[in-house]
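Researcher: Checking consistency across runs. Here is Class A sortase again:
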Amino acid sequence: MHIKFKKIIWLFLSGITLIIGLMLLFNNQIKNEMVRQNQIIGLKSLTKKSIKKNKHKKGMFNYSKVKEIGWKQVLEAKQSGRNKAYSIGALSIPSVGMYLPIENGLSNINLSTGGCTMRADQVMGKGNYPLAGHYMLNNGSILFSPLERTKIGQRIYLTDLNKIYVYQINMKQIVSPKAVWLIHNTPENIVTLITCANGGKMRWAIRGILIGETIATKQNLKSIGL
């Protein structure tokens, strides 16, 4: 009986060790899949009513508080219908398969869900509309990772579900993390997308100039993958 009990304990501990090993092995894959699900849920839950409400939320714009994406932020964004992430629109770049909710402010929960506004006063379709997002080293299809594959001339679409704003990429370059001029407002109506480059040492900066706008009907949204 004593030998049988020891065997059960050994099997139990071996199983626990195997589970921990698998979790460590697939840690990034699991986390990335949850982020992808957060993106999908964020897009599906967008309504004109929720956007209007979230625009009045106080966003966080303290860049020093931004952290690398972790389990805590990913799980919190997934809880209770993502009530801690403030979606105010959507971003689409069909040429690289990039479809994300736009979040109000740079909270770590927002950054684990979509692209985030970088100034409290920015207005979609007017002046410079800068957005920041995480670059995922182990997955080139989620959050702002696809930006690396964009090309000059491709189109970027932003929407608040009232209108769709169409931009054409006219700048793509790697810049210093200190290039704060990218965030400043401009006389020109442009969008600026920023994410990490070179392992976080530099930044990708993609800009597009506004070339048109249209009403955000179901058909028009579907045509841009939203």
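Researcher: Does this match what you'd expect to see?
Model: One thing to look at in this run: The chain is about 30% helix and 25% strand.
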